[in-house]
Amino acid sequence: MNDFTYRNPVKIVFGKHSIERLDALIPPSADTMLVYGGGSIKRNGVYDRVKKAMGRRKLAEFGGIEPNPTYETCMKAVEKARAEGIGFLLAAGGGSVLDAVKFIAAAVPYDGGDPWRILETRGEVVESALPLGTVLTLPATGSEMNRFAVISRKKTQQKCAFPSDHVYPRFSILDPQVTYSLPKKYLRNGIVDAFVHVMEQYVTVDVNTPLQDRQAEAIVLTLVETAGGVLSGQNDYETMATFMWCATMALNGLISCGCVQDWSTHMIGHELTAFFGIDHAESLAVVLPGVWRLCLNSKKTKLAKLAERVWAVNAGSDDEKAEAAVERTEAFFESVGMPTRLGSYGIGAGDIKKIVDRFAQSGTALGENADVDAAAVGEILRSRL
Amino acid sequence: MNDFTYRNPVKIVFGKHSIERLDALIPPSADTMLVYGGGSIKRNGVYDRVKKAMGRRKLAEFGGIEPNPTYETCMKAVEKARAEGIGFLLAAGGGSVLDAVKFIAAAVPYDGGDPWRILETRGEVVESALPLGTVLTLPATGSEMNRFAVISRKKTQQKCAFPSDHVYPRFSILDPQVTYSLPKKYLRNGIVDAFVHVMEQYVTVDVNTPLQDRQAEAIVLTLVETAGGVLSGQNDYETMATFMWCATMALNGLISCGCVQDWSTHMIGHELTAFFGIDHAESLAVVLPGVWRLCLNSKKTKLAKLAERVWAVNAGSDDEKAEAAVERTEAFFESVGMPTRLGSYGIGAGDIKKIVDRFAQSGTALGENADVDAAAVGEILRSRL
């Protein structure tokens, strides 16, 4: 087990009447700005519940955060927050809205010039942030209980992440009932996103972390068991509650304590989203099997463990089990209606070069062994055509 | 899944050189008092490492916290801390020292009269506490990452617990190397203590919490797998690290999110310790099988799950599996050298009455169904003679 530091101060308020507890969670004196996306919270009742819970308190609003939230839109919210002297940010939405609010929170007090520096320095320049809270409407990214945000820049077609202890939400409200109105595609994306989050922390080098391995397996076993019910349209409360908690636990830092992490699938996937606009989860389902096959040797121990513990493949050599783990995972993605090939999105061999070029320019070496270079990215993407 | 609120702000600093990071973890301006137990930290090197890490900073000291820390001893530390204007408490020891420091931290600023009120009100009167940090030397109680403390009072032979958000440690330092010098009996106690902590949160009413169930099973499966190595005397770093992290995860609030909890074994066990002085873990191993057998019907679903998932008992009816779970758990305790009968401690039938009387006086109804009354406690204890 590697040495580690772990601290996650987010207060989770989970359950049926959790939105109604908002007023007690936000400091009474704070001028609050509600930030949301394309307006789904006005159709599914979340907006009304938030307004009602806030009672007579003044509530500024900023709507229109897009999926893969952009720096350009966020900066408009930053200006508004600065102009109105906002003291607390309340995000109501999915991971995109939450990530946007984390960036806005860090950008408002930032006085070192263009806040894009926050992304360029991977959060190093962040010394403070407005306090923020969240009302989660889409189980997927885990943003509600972590210190990460991913922001895109339209002008340069970039998609960048930053971490900062200052952007942990003070609280996150998780009411499984708000998922009832989600389109099936969003639920499918959420299942795959949470699944891949666990894999980025699990299918790496084995450094003797048996408890953390089982904690990771607990999440994916439960996700796999629950996926059918989530997608059934039956809106069973227990099923949705379990799915929601799985997605949060998949990326709150706990299962990676003392472990080696990968994240190359995410880094390559971000470029697919930046250049071609495919959904984040869609990009992950395409890339993951390619990364695993390329790195099959170094990931063999963990892939074999995945095959045994999650996919109940107990026969065969470690090589055979590792291959089975890749196949079974691809089949799981397909079973929830998620394509696993670039061709499904009309992306062809000729489109790969500009992604490879970008990795070549930055000289990035991805993965837990820093051996996934630009050439390897090309090989991975060509294997997923 | 029940509604829940979860927040745990403790910073865990885990690994080989973690004690050496102390200075950076304590506010520079704080007058700090080191609190420890019977002096084992002076023999195992922890005291010297702490002093060295603190450099030239002033460090007051209070030693002599006993196992099952007493109100009487803690109050001497409270007086010293008040007299010397202490601003930060540093606990170095096992659960007893950590619990003592939590009580001292809450008692120092308490101005509502006798601080025993803190225990009488189960923490309700605690409005603030001195900040505290811990250097854990004995994996067992989970006190390093929770908001609970258990304090005994000599004069009245009472053992009481209190929770408070104000006594979460600011940080807890976990260096698995400090466990190398622990006597086998302490390690055995730690294994059983952590195991029973999980059981109090798992073997209850099934309210549809598949993720939390697997997270609980992850801990006990790993504890069972690791126990032999922990007790072998080989002091393998990886084994001790895994054991240490299991004990912390067993009682940091995570696995009980949305679940129903029991804790009757602890409540009855506390009385055995208060009256007869047997170790906390010893009391748990005696009581747990008795509670399970008495409540076999209401705990059947979870006991059967325990049998399947942890003890690999897949044949038989739920009744048979539940019975197997009790037997296998008792056998596990015995396998680590832990007695499971009152007779091992010279406690006989005639000793049970005063415990029953105390529960009768207070009118307590223990367990997740509040159906373990004084008569049931008598039945449980008589079944464990």
Which structural class is indicated by helix and strand composition of chain A?
alpha/beta
Number of helices of chain A: 15
Average pLDDT reading of chain A? 97
Strand share of the residues of chain A? 5-15%
Oligomer: homodimer
- So, CATH architecture of the largest domain in chain A? Up-down Bundle
Which topology of the largest domain in chain A does CATH recognise? Dehydroquinate synthase-like, alpha domain
What would you report as the Rg of chain A, rounded to the nearest angstrom? 20 Å
**Percentage of helical residues of chain A?**
40-55%
Please outline the major beta sheet of chain A: 6 strands, parallel
The two chains with the largest interface, and their residue counts, are: A-B, 41 and 41 residues
The N- to C-terminal Cα distance of chain A equals: 37 Å
The low-confidence runs of chain A, each spanning 5 or more residues with pLDDT under 50, are none
The total of beta strands of chain A comes to: 8
The CATH superfamily of the largest domain in chain A is Dehydroquinate synthase-like - alpha domain
